[in-house]
Amino acid sequence: MHDEGLSTGKLVKRLLLLVVGMFAFGFLLVPIYDVMCQAFGINGKTAGSAWQGSAQSVDLQREVRVQFLASNAEGMRWRFGPQDEEILMHPGETRTVHFLAHNPTDRVMVAQAIPSVAPSRAAAYFHKTECFCFTQQVLQPGESVEMPVRFIVDPALPKDVRRLTLAYTLFDVTERMAPSLGLTAMHSN
């Protein structure tokens, strides 16, 4: 009987250690993810607000190809994509491109676009001065919209980077945003 109580105490300690370990792992997951993305050159984050820098001198001696991608997160029913799949530009040049979105549903929907730049080391040199990703987008049933992105590729971009990819993932945030926008909560069809 005494041995059984001792083994129960050990089991409780091990289970508590397991719970603490799981909590620590959950807490450290975001920093670990950021380090892994940086190490493998994926998921370059861009600023979440408009760039406030000064005018750049245009580097006419080189060109950078910028590719545009769009995808919908699970449950997002909008049609969403870039008007142009890629452009060729000079670093320091200000360019505007458009993404097209259409809400084919029979309900008001709210979306949030999350950008990323690849390779990730180029994200620090990609400056958005205007972007639909800075705010939520509200579309009425059947509504279509052209959403601009105005940006500059910094002339300080490393010379070996000749291609950038700006990718957006569109998320349905209708349920979360409905109360603050005065919409009645609607469930996905």
From TrEMBL:
Chief localisation class: membrane
InterPro entries on file: CtaG/Cox11_dom_sf, Cyt_c_oxidase_assmbl_CtaG
Short name of one Pfam family: CtaG_Cox11
Membrane topology listed for this record: Single-pass type II membrane protein
This protein's record includes keyword 4Fe-4S: no
GO CC annotations on file: plasma membrane
Annotated protein name in UniProt: Cytochrome c oxidase assembly protein CtaG
